[in-house]
Amino acid sequence: MTHAIGIDIGGTGIKGAIIDLDSGELITERFKVPTPEGGEPDDIVDVVVRMIAGMGSAADGLAVGICFPAVVLHGVTMSAANVSKKWIGLDAAPLFAKSLERDIIFVNDADAAGVAEVRYGAAKGKDGLVILTTLGTGIGSAIIFDGVLVPNSELGHLEIDGHDAESRAAYSAKERDNLDWAQWTQRLQRYYDELEKLFSPDLIIVGGGVSKNADEFLPLLTLRPPIVAATMKNNAGIVGSAALSMEHPH
Ligand code: BGC
Prior knowledge:
Blueprint: E1 3-9, E2 13-20, E3 25-26, E4 31-34, H1 41-54, E5 64-68, E6 72-73, E7 76-77, E8 90-91, H2 92-100, E9 104-108, H3 109-120, E10 129-135, E11 139-145, E12 148-150, E13 159-160, E14 163-164, H4 165-169, H5 171-176, H6 181-199, E15 203-207, H7 214-217, E16 227-229, H8 236-244
Parallel strand pairs: 1-5, 5-9, 10-15, 15-16
Antiparallel strand pairs: 1-2, 2-3, 2-4, 6-7, 7-8, 10-11, 11-12, 13-14
The structure holds beta-D-glucopyranose.
Beta-D-glucopyranose (BGC) binds next to helix 3.
């Protein structure tokens, strides 16, 4: 059995667990702490170090995969939509590696979720074009063709009707604007219509915390491709990061 640690840094919370890479299952509880106010690099690194220390001896020597809500190119964070702007241009991977005293892999959060769904979930064995979107603080996306990830797509930032799409359709927009499921679904319909028009996907997968309530909104959407909840719900980021920790950085 191969185990690895997956960490999912979000605009709102930081989650982590030890994952069994054969099954994609969590073999520990899911550790979760709020993202430190301001989302500053040093504070977030501290939280991750403490979280892994809190996993005890089971975490000793395990590979670590970390996912983050930004474009990540060769370990460098190129954007920062819902965290401190200090992340932009930061060589983040070595920062975590140094503090954790081991090699790590560092990737975009939605890409990690996409990898998890390809290996263990709703995209497993699916040919053609699969688009996974995470609906959370922002909207993340993973584009997968014939099981291969095309990294760093940023489909949450499509401009739709003059707005950054995630500012209208992310789950945080539902909460901010006090929308009921039907009202929010109208915004999602507009968003997914655009994705359908631009990409003609064969399958759309919806991840993020709200995917546990998928029954409240997915049946209200009318789209040509099937749209389903991520099998791993909000754990997809942790699971995918852990899975990617076994790969070489690129
Ligand atoms: C970021 C993406 C990220 C998504 C979900 C967006 O605001 O630009 O990189 O995947 O939020 O966290």
